[in-house]
Amino acid sequence: MFLPSFMGFDKAGFGDPDALAFFARVTAAGGSLTLTEKSAVNTLVIQMKADGTWTPMKAIYPMVGASAAACAQNLKSSSFTGTFTSGWTFASTGVTPNGTSAYMNTGFVPDTNGLTYDNNHISFYSRTSAQAGGIQYYDMGAGNILGTNNLALYARRNDNSASYDSGNASTNRGTFTNTNGGGFYCGTAPTTTSKYFKNGTSQVSKSLTSSVIANISIYIGAFNENNTNAYYSSKQCALASIGNGLTDTQASNFYTAVQAFQTTLSRQV
Question: Model-level pTM?
């Protein structure tokens, strides 16, 4: 049955206006989504709005559509469309960088878009359990060569550490031991205490010292070090986000919504 556009639905019956706007951006960019992907995205948006996790978001990359055109689109708004380099593999399960040269530039600069060391979050859904090949890599982030203004995270280095930086890495890094790199990682600093969540559960809490935050664009699949790509990831990403800080309840609810989204797409870990 066809539902007219003035009712706020497309012909498939997916009615959230932000979801519909995202679908239109994917199509305009030359990408396409399956009905299952559309349904999963629509449900994710509705649930996030119900949970109060939609408003803090600045950028959400659901990594659906199995193409650079589709996966580069920001679900939250028409701003911060990503740019993929070569070296990525696109599949229905997500996007995988080659670990040596690939990254996606989000175009999102934290300190000029309202984020601070005590008001930010970043998240990364990893479908790769293995350790990184080296001691230094990031799944997403940006900062300077001294690490004094980072906003970054990684899920599992080869020493089985997982860390989230909210400002100065030497004073504001929260780290926990992690022997499985798969899962949903969310570093959040809603106040001067940051927490690093895995699958909706806080793994480490860190009291933050006053610091600046990254003033260059966040990369996914690597670290943006003074506008130079470095420290490449090889972990498959099935969703990433950037935004204001999330409370404990919001972080837990965000995981529940994202895990339901991934389960609908048969790519949950």
Answer: 0.95
